[in-house]
Amino acid sequence: KLYVLVTGPVMGMRHVQALLIFLHITILFVGRYNAGVSVVAMTDAETTNPDFPVWFGMTFQSSIDTFLIFCQEYDWTEAQKSYILSSFFWGYILTQFLGGYLCKRFGVKSVMFWGAFGSAICSALTPLFISFGEWQAYCGIRVIMGLAQGVVFPCIHQHLARWSPPSERNRLGALAHTGIECGNMSAMFFSGMIAKSSLGWPGISYVSAGLAFLWCALWYIFSANNPTESRFISKPELEYVESSLKHNEKYHKTIIPIPWKAIWTSAPFLALLVVRCCENWGLSTLQSQIPSYMHGVLDMDMKSNAFFSALPFLAMWIMSYIYLAVAEVLLGKNSVSLTFLRKTFNSIALFVPCGTLIGIGFLDKEQKNLAIALMTIGVGFNSGQTIGSVLNTIDLSPNHASILMGIVNTAANFVPIVTPLVVGLIVEDDTDRTEWQIVFIIASVLFLVGNVIYVIFGTAVSQPWDAEDFLKLKDAEQATEVKSKELVKENNQKSS
Predict the structure, then answer these.
(1) Which residue from 74, 127, 378, 394 has the highest number of Cβ atoms inside 10 Å of its Cβ?
(2) pTM of the model
(3) How far apart are the C-alpha atoms of 443 and 360, rounded to whole Å?
(4) Collapsed DSSP state (helix, strand, coil) of residue 60
């Protein structure tokens, strides 16, 4: 027998879609997590730009009023800071399900465009809101930003499922999601640099907004809901992608019914739900609290803080490509199954930070180099969770990836609401190392427990309820069963 290996163009529009998603995630994460740096800059002006003027030079004049955006130092309590850091997720969790529905109803292109555009407007208006309403207004604008960004990740997983051939799905998905690490690193490093510059902390918001508006333009031009709608895709690539997905001709115009009961009773899906919540607890603790920890316990100014806060996430970004390269080699040689690969990578990604987080809690400013090294190692290894579990929604159900991601992200992003509030309750004095020990130990325990559950019950095998006709088959089976019972009952009555 002669076997023909069907492959598409080495580079094509499917790679452009992955690149656009990478840029989108990067820019959204910059807007999401730069608040950790901004809050430090706004509450301790001496650590940013000592020559920064009392007010930033933006004046809106009319015949009635003149408004000045004041950039003074704010005297916010630790509890108020924690409200600011968690407020984004108050809105974010509310639109996850909505995002999954909207992208099925109106298409990924429109929903992601308006989500990014709304987030950009919020970034642009942030300094103005703060000047009038201080921390309460800051919370309000971040809630709205969360509402806008909440629709994005369900769309991303739906988009990857529609554009990625199964043999390339792990590669394209992992490459796109390295935007998480790039965004985290950029939020920490460049935000600190901007705050230290003549732009001051308002510049952080304006730069974030500008990048988001630029991405909207690129997305509008080059994106498409699926390969058949793309203006730029070549015929060989179109045939390659569509044939590899093995669906019927009406697939892109059909809304497949959602098997809710099967989803909520699926052990692999529930294991994924648990591990993503536990992962988010540890990661959100690091993302939002590293600047405060380094400023308080390690006694670093903003410029040093910016670099060393970003360093762990730079390591995370670099490690994500190392994980991807290893995964490509192992899967290419059929050395391991995808399920084994995901569980192994996820175990490394969570167990290593367990040890480093506990170790960090016992160090102070006299051992700051060791503390930074441990934090960098822990966060760097944690990047394995992208291949380990983040992409698992597409494994379990390509047809319902947006719905699964909506559920997972809704639950997992309750966590970043809680973590800053818990830190605010535990850490009353941000220079007290013993209070930070408790924060890091809680994160370590959750990393451990969540991964054990995922290793036992998780899988990367597509589930039966992913089938396009699953509910029709179930209805047919139930109808046959009912009809059989009626026939048995009728026969019994006749015989009696």
Answers:
(1) 378
(2) 0.73
(3) 12
(4) strand
